[in-house]
Amino acid sequence: MKTHDEVDVKISGAVLTRAQAKANVQHLPDFDFDDSLFEGGKIRPRKSRSQKRFEKKLNLMSPEATDFVGMKHGNISDLQKEDKDFKPLFARVTQSKDKLFGEKSQFIVDNNVLYMAEGEQKRLVVPVICRPLVMQLAHTVPWAGHLGRHKTYLRAASRFYWPSMYTDIQKYCAVCPTCQKTCPTRKSDRVLLQPLPVISTPFRRIAMDIVGPLVKSSSGHEYILVVCDYATRFPEAFPLRTITAPTVVRALVQLFSRVGIPDEILTDQGTNFTSRLMQLFYKHLGISAIRTTPYHPQTDGLVERFNQTLKKMLQKFVDDTGKDWDRWLPFLLFAYREVPQASTGF
How far is CA 260 from CA 229, 237, 274, in A? Predict the structure, then answer.
């Protein structure tokens, strides 16, 4: 595990891939490790994943709390004036109101609080002492979903500003204990994938897949029906008790009532997707069924990639029993949808 001080320590209980385990063995010294985590700046590992802790987080850290990172106007103003980076800037803007970054970007003081203004957007200038809390709100809480550095930066940068913001968030995400335990090392594709024709109309083509069986939740759910739109990358997920064709049809009716009926649906060769009932359902709605090649999930790469992301996000928030995973789905879907997609730009 890496910290802000670049200290390598052993992660007790972490699940490693075969490649990671092989790499670790090659670098093991001939003495025992101390399993404790060295302090890295202000990063502290979570002590518990209990339901009580997360419910307390939700009560204390609503999305509205990010407006002033949990502080009153007076507190944030005093901290800005005391911060070594912003103290001279605060005085200069207050006295002369210079446009320091050209015509499009400038610092302004509103209600005795320093902001970075870009057009109509106004972002709070964050002093050093408040930055860990901002990064926590943008990365570790349930509606942030422990997403990667780029999406975490986009979420934070929509409301806040400080110099070297992207670099700080990149380091914060790199040393996140939860992410290091649950995110395996990514490998490049061994073969080139054959892309499907580009779709520009939202929900004209969707892909769907089943995740599971998972640990049976307290509500009796064991599976997730995952649906992704090819044009917008918009994901949807339905917790299911069974994966029979009638259950899948009922979930699709809910989806179609909100987004409309697609022209094409891409699925694997599962019997719940190829059954007689599904064929009649497609026929009555005028939907063309596209099937993946057997034992070749890369054909449905969009939904398969989201499945991996969703499972990693769930790993970071479920309790010790794993039976509350369906309760976190709405929060994690919100976290994924809120930030722009790199491939689409929105």
Answer: 12, 16, 22
By the 8 A CB rule, do 335 and 144 touch? Answer: yes
| Cβ neighbours around 35 below 10 Å, total | 10
* Claim to verify: residue 216 and residue 288 sit in the same structural domain: yes
Q: Are residues 137 and 244 in the same domain?
A: no
Q: Is residue 259 part of a domain?
A: yes
Which residues have C-beta within 8 Å of that of residue 258, sequence separation ≥ 6?
none
- What are 241-262's pLDDT values in tens digits? 999 999 999 999 999 999 999 9
Give the three-state DSSP class for 284.
helix
In terms of residue numbers, what domain contains 321? 205-338
Widest Cα–Cα separation across the chain: 75
- Report whether 125 contacts 115 (CB < 8 A): yes
pTM as predicted: 0.53
SS3 state of residue 230: coil
Q: What percent of the chain has pLDDT over 90?
A: 30
Q: Say yes or no: 47 and 165 in one domain.
A: yes
Name the token pair of 114.
């320093």
- DSSP annotation of 43: B
Q: Where are the beta strands (DSSP E) in the chain?
A: 105-110, 113-118, 121-125, 160-161, 205-211, 223-229, 235-240, 264-267, 288-291
For 132-152, the DSSP string reads HHHHHHHHTSTTTTT--HHHH
Q: Please give the Cα distance from 130 to 326 (Å, whole number).
A: 33
CA 92 to chain centre: 38
**What is the reported pLDDT for 23?**
53
* CA–CA dist 86, 97 (Å, integer): 14
Contacts of 264 (CB under 8 A, 6+ apart): 204, 205, 206, 287, 288, 289, 290
Where among 183, 216, 249 does a domain terminate? 183
